[in-house]
Structure to design on (322 residues):
């Protein structure tokens, strides 16, 4: 059952759909050509995302986080990620698709939706997840991707143990010195000092961070205009169903086993039902793998979320009252 037009679900999802549509028009009209897509991807991945992630983590105090509710989310994500790698093999494509199965759009859709549905108490729970979401999922995905990249580069090379160890070390170093992981770690470390960012630094970071989501979604639309989605519709639908349906059901089951209940469990279930986040598309672009499938999956997942998030909210209403 689809959400009514004035529901929080539509209010949160409509801007996402419109931004992707704007990018699609720009791509179809040829305003932004294929050569510019890579440059825009670098702008987002190397400048806008680091600014957003560093600033988001720069105020997070580790001791203030309530970890049991988010543990249900991340345990489920870890199981889905491992299952995807087991089914598809240890390679870059599997690593990116595993991230698509587990990475929710918790900021652009999640924050306004949870704010409208649950108010300030729900936002406290969600922001605990948001503060760790990129740190755990993107860092883990980066490590796996760097190791998979190194493994693919050495395939058939007959490397000895010393060379393999050096490759693993290089992959781990690349995972840490990464435009997504490094600002998350740096921001978290800065937060523990108790300092605050001077306004002259904080304001430019805020402006850069605010540009991330709209430009990333427009870029999804541009790529969509150049992608034969029909060829990937079946695969994209599978990805969307895993993300929008299997993920929240897993969080519900794991959360119940961990003794999480009431509002915290409701917020985690709804957060898990969110569509695939744009960061997954950035990873596909960065590692040049499964770009068309991920683009189609983001779109199908976002459209499907009109139904699945509505159902998750309806089911979570009982959890929140418990």
């Amino acid at each position: 059952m689809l959400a009514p037009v004035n529901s929080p679900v539509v209010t949160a999802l409509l801007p996402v759909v419109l931004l992707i549509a704007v990018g699609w028009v720009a791509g179809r009209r040829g305003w932004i050509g294929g050569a510019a897509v890579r440059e825009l991807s670098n702008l987002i991945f190397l400048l806008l995302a680091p600014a957003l992630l560093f600033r988001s983590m720069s105020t997070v105090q580790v001791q203030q986080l309530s970890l049991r509710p988010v543990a249900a989310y991340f345990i489920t994500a870890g199981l889905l990620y491992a299952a995807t790698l087991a089914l598809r093999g240890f390679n870059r494509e599997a690593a990116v698709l595993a991230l698509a199965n587990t990475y929710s759009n918790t900021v652009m859709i999640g924050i306004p939706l949870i704010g409208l549905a649950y108010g300030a108490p729900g936002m406290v729970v969600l922001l605990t997840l948001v503060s760790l979401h990129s740190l755990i999922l993107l860092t883990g995905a980066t490590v796996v991707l760097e190791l998979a990249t190194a493994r693919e580069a050495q395939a058939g090379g007959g490397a000895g143990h010393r060379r393999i160890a050096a490759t693993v070390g290089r992959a781990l170093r690349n995972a840490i010195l990464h435009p997504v992981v490094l600002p998350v770690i740096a921001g978290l470390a800065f937060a523990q000092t108790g300092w605050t960012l001077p306004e002259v630094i904080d304001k430019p970071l805020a402006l850069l961070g605010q540009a991330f989501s709209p430009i990333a979604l427009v870029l999804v639309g541009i790529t969509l205009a150049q992608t034969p989605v029909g060829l990937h519709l079946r695969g994209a639908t599978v990805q969307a169903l895993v993300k929008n349906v299997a993920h929240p059901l897993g969080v519900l089951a794991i959360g119940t086993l961990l003794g999480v209940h009431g509002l915290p469990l409701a917020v985690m279930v709804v957060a898990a039902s969110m569509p695939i986040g744009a960061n997954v598309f950035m990873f596909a672009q960065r590692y040049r793998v499964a770009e068309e499938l991920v683009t189609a999956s983001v779109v199908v997942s976002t459209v499907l979320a009109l139904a699945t998030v509505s159902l998750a909210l309806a089911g979570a209403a009982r959890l929140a009252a418990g």
In short: The first helix runs from residue 8 to 29. Residues 8-321 form a domain with the Na+/H+ antiporter like fold fold (CATH 1.20.1530.20). The chain has a mean pLDDT of 83. The chain has one domain: 8-321.
